[in-house]
Amino acid sequence: MDVKSTNQIEAAIDSNYDRKAEIKAFDESKTGVRGLVESGVQKLPRMFHSGVDITENMASDPTLSVPVLDLEGIHNNPALRKEAVAKIRSACQEWGFFQVVNHGIPISVMDDMLDGIRRFHEQDPDVRKQFFSRDLKSIILYYSNTSIFLDKFANWRDTVGCSMAPNPPKPEELPAVFRDIIIEYSKKAMALGCTIFELLSEALGLNPSYLKELNCAEGLFIQGHYYPPCPEPELTLATSKHTDSAFITILLQDQLGGLQILHDNQWFNVPPVHGALVVNIGDILQLITNDKFVSVYHRVLANNKGPRVSVASFFSNSHDPAKGASKVYGPIKELLSEENPPIYRDTSVGEIMAHHFAKGLDGSYALQPFRL
Question: What value, to the nearest 5°, has the Cα angle with vertex 25 and ends 22 and 30?
Answer without folding.
Answer: 135
